[in-house]
Amino acid sequence: MRPALRFAALLAFRQLRHRALASGAALAGVAVAVMLMLVQVAFRNGLYDSALALPRALAADIVLVSPGYRALTFSPPWLPRAALRDAAGMPGVAETAALYAYSGQVRSRETGGNLSVWLLGLDPASRVLDLPEVAAAQRLLSVPDSALLDRLSRQEFRAVLARFAAEGLARLPLYTPAADLAPVLQVRGLFALGPSFTIDGTLLVSDLTLHAALGVPLDRVSIGLVRLRPGADAGLVAAALAARVEGRARVLTRDAFLAEERGFYARRTPIGLIFNTGLLVGVAVGVVFILQVLNGLVDANLPEYAVLLAQGYRPAFLAAVVAQAAVAVALLTYPLALGLALLVTRVAATATRLPLGLHGADMAAVLALSLGMAAAAAGLAALRLRRADPLELFA
Amino acid sequence: MSRAVAALRGVGHGFGSGPRRRTVLRGIDLDLRAGEFVALTGPSGSGKTTLLTLLGALRVPEAGRVCLLGQDMAGLDAAGLAALRRRIGFVFQRHHLLRSLSVLENVEAALHALPGAEPRRDRAAALAMLEAVGLGGRGAEPTARLSGGEQQRVAVARALVRRPALVLADEPTASLDGGTGRAVVALLADLARSQGCAVVMGTHDERCLDLVTRRLHMEDGMLRQTEQAA
Ligand SMILES: Nc1ncnc2c1ncn2[C@@H]1O[C@H](COP(=O)(O)OP(=O)(O)OP(=O)(O)O)[C@@H](O)[C@H]1O
Ligand SMILES: [Mg+2]
């Protein structure tokens, strides 16, 4: 059956090409549907990447979190600093550090209103965040009430950034319910983390400033960071550590931690659902357009298919022609869809400052999906082949 | 006596049921032998096409027995009938070539369905057959560029390239002008004779009847006369 299959492919391609103009609109529809799927994936990547920017920046091989911890959002539940001290004495552990994460509000001098901020506290002398500008600027934080501001914070912070650019310093009054005690933060430097969909702006302060400003006790750590000696096995140390801090903290290797963060956004937030729904709509629209191409193809070629049946070709051969045509539609429209998607993604990334992008695996997955769409459409279009009847060729 | 290609005994066929029932073929007995060129004439609606589609394994008779190429059709399923059709060539009133394929590819297409198809050998056979119908050198052209007569000659080449035991032609000249139609039938007769296959041609075209070896006349679903041509 090999030559017959090759012939099926040739015939499918030629018949498609013969009707290229007639099916132009539907082919464009297929390309647009696949493009929307790709853009959808790029947006999902952007959302995940922005949500994971801080977890990824943590300078840790192993992470300790509270047993009730779910994700690194505004104010995660705390774990006792003692657990971190226990970790410091474990074999294989090089050093430990603490990150404090709290939500807060600052007063906007421009509007008089409040802006919500994420206040991240760290010891200016220790390595907590692996972000290029932070390493250089975090020493400035040892001056009380100093802060670094995320230059990629949302638009509302534009005025603060402008003031900093002009004067090298910007004053940001913290808003606290006990207003007369409210300290004023001094922005002395900038760093780059990027906005996420839950956070407007991020400020980095020293742990002592955070303690003074919000009154939070420093033995309550938001995230405990553990760095290993070279050659130490993260899995083994994590297991030993988990036994040691049993009940007080949960111990995760870096990879497990990042996977859990990602899983949180995929499963516990509407992002996963919204994304999957969008993808499903793209799939449905794509199937409809492919089906339109294939139905047009079958209708236009019914007498030709009848001739093939008269010649002794089996109905399965005709189904193979339709299937090959479907695959050809998926493969030929994909490069166009990908090109458009990359273009749209680049424009949107510039506009939103979100790290939108497509990885090779995403492109392959969407290509596989569109081949699946082609298979579904081919199955439906093949039903129409029953109307090919050699008896209609006779006079 | 040459090889039997088809044998029909008491074949009857009709369409519809109840008051709309219409009997189209009654008590047909027919023997076809290799090398015969049979013209099937008769008034419109007399059942010529119905008989041809039975001979082409495109339908099974309601009554009687049809033995085609040594096989009793009664015992065959759809796949068996399809296998039988691979040994039969068809020429229709309209050429029904595959528009998106070239002339040569149309002829080759008749071979891909055959068991033991072999692309290189099939191409050589298709080229030789195009030569035989006077279209050598035109294989690469799209079928739409050929005249009606040339297209019908490609259809003849397509039917005969598979070296069928039986060729069935239904009004092959009806879409062509007289001279062209006769030339196509003459070509068909020539090639069939050289291959030794049987041809049955349903026709209204008086001008072609001198080219056949036998004439069958249908009237009211019955084969009324059987005359041996000179
Ligand atoms: N599928 C069908 N359903 C119902 N009636 C049919 C069908 N096919 C043919 N008939 C009827 O059977 C009769 C014989 O038809 P057939 O096509 O065999 O005649 P014919 O001799 O080929 O006629 P013509 O010379 O006009 O082609 C006609 O009355 C036709 O209406
Ligand atoms: Mg007829």
TrEMBL record, chain A:
Q: Mind listing the UniProt keywords for this protein, alphabetically?
A: Cell membrane, Membrane, Transmembrane, Transmembrane helix, Transport
Subcellular location(s) per record: Cell membrane
Which stretches make up the ABC3 transporter permease C-terminal domain?
279-390
**Transmembrane region positions?**
20-41, 53-72, 271-297, 317-343, 364-385
Q: Which InterPro entries match?
A: ABC-4/HrtB_transporter, ABC3_permease_C, DevC
- Pfam family for this entry, one: FtsX
Keyword field contains Cell membrane: yes
Judging by the UniProt lineage, the source's domain of life is: Bacteria
* Record has Ion transport as a keyword: no
Topology relative to the lipid bilayer, per the entry, is: Multi-pass membrane protein
**Main location, first listed in the record:** membrane
Q: What is this protein called?
A: ABC3 transporter permease C-terminal domain-containing protein
Annotated source species: Paracraurococcus ruber
From the broadest rank down, the organism's phylogenetic lineage runs:
Bacteria, Pseudomonadati, Pseudomonadota, Alphaproteobacteria, Acetobacterales
From TrEMBL, chain B:
Question: Do you know which PROSITE patterns this protein is assigned to?
Answer: ABC_TRANSPORTER_1 (PS00211), ABC_TRANSPORTER_2 (PS50893)
Gene3D superfamilies noted in UniProt: P-loop containing nucleotide triphosphate hydrolases
Q: Which residues form the ABC transporter domain?
A: 8-230
Q: Which organism is it from?
A: Paracraurococcus ruber
Under the heading InterPro entries, the entry gives: AAA+_ATPase, ABC_transporter-like_ATP-bd, ABC_transporter-like_CS, ABC_transpr_LolD-like, MacB-like_ATP-bd, P-loop_NTPase
Task: For this UniProt record, give its keywords in alphabetical order, as a comma-separated list.
Answer: ATP-binding, Nucleotide-binding, Transport
Signal peptide location: none
ATP-binding: is it a keyword of this entry?
yes
**Record-given protein name:** ABC transporter
Q: What is the lineage of its organism?
A: Bacteria, Pseudomonadati, Pseudomonadota, Alphaproteobacteria, Acetobacterales
